[in-house]
């Protein structure tokens, strides 16, 4: 059973809905969830916010936070998740912002990805250093990490 | 060279930006575009609007249009594309809304997908009957069709 199938099953059992705010994964989390038939029961929208302006306009991320910490930061991940859960009115949200590569940026290394997983009673903010595995690998691992965190958050509700 | 690589090359040559409003593809078009290194030059946001409410809230699709024609309709595809290009302030947009299956809905057959491809000087609205190829195939073909239409629209600008 895929991660997305697991997520659908657990959320359906508990009556939970999810959303995703994606920067470096660029829609891969939403695509994985909607790959499963019946996913409309738990997922009704996703946000692909690749630029800073998109993060601000679509999710309400503060320009001051972006200036102070950069787009790839735990602070921005947290504001992305809060904006997503507010806009989607979902029970759970995950936000992903990182450096997929090739090469680093913002003086940050390739493979660094910040996540925020949010539920009504928990916030998990973390930075994972996947390393310079290549763009496709960093993106796939980030997608799977995000799905795993949503599963854990759903289990804990 | 992949469709997304082609799209990036053409849009970069012409200084064009793109966005995507996705229902049945659920983020696959955005994911394909952002799979290519350097895609931030042409793509800065995408909309995954799986539910009717998301189509209305994120893209300004009229509830009356949804009621009259259903979510899988050329009318809704066109409103999705116009909403996306307005919100993203991009040069090109594609919208995709269809029945990925399994099974039909809204009294419409599995595999029916409506697309709208928009540029500053053209609008292409179409319905493609992919048939009951299975959910994954319908979604992949829809993604590739959307990318191909964006390439054609970029070439024609």
Short description:
The structure is a homodimer of 157-residue chains. Chain A has 157 residues and is an alpha/beta fold.
Q: State the name of the first-level CATH class of chain A.
A: Alpha Beta
User: Based on DSSP secondary structure assignment, what is the total number of beta strands of chain A?
Assistant: 5
Distance between the termini of chain A: 22 Å
Number of domains of chain A: 1
Report the principal-axis shape of chain A.
Answer: globular
* Spatial sequence of strands, sheet with the most strands of chain A: 2-1-3-4-5
Q: Label the structural class of chain A.
A: alpha/beta
User: In terms of quaternary structure, what is this?
Assistant: homodimer
Average pLDDT figure of chain A: 97
Radius of gyration of chain A, whole Å: 14 Å
Q: Which spans of chain A of ≥5 residues are poorly predicted at pLDDT below 50? A: none
Q: Keywords, please?
A:
five-stranded mixed sheet, Maf protein, alpha/beta, 157 residues, homodimer
Describe this structure as you would to a colleague.
The structure is a homodimer of 157-residue chains. Chain A is α/β, with parallel strands linked by helices and 157 residues long. Chain A has one domain (3-156): CinA-like (Maf protein, Alpha-Beta Complex). Chain A contains six helices and five strands; from the N terminus they run αβαβαααβββα. Chain A has helices at residues 3-14, 28-34, 52-59, 63-69, 74-88, 135-156, and strands at residues 18-22, 43-49, 92-98, 112-119, 122-129. The first copy, chain A, has a five-stranded mixed sheet, with helices on both faces. In chain A, α1 runs parallel beside α6 and α2 (28-34) packs across α6. The longest helix of chain A is centred in the last third of the chain and has 22 residues, at 135-156. The A-B interface holds A 22, 24-31, 33-35, 37, 39-40, 43-51, 53-54, 57-58, 87-88, 101-102, 135-136, 139 and B 22, 24-31, 33-35, 37, 39-40, 43-51, 53-54, 57-58, 87-88, 101-102, 135-136, 139. β2 (43-49) of chain A pairs antiparallel with β2 (43-49) of chain B.
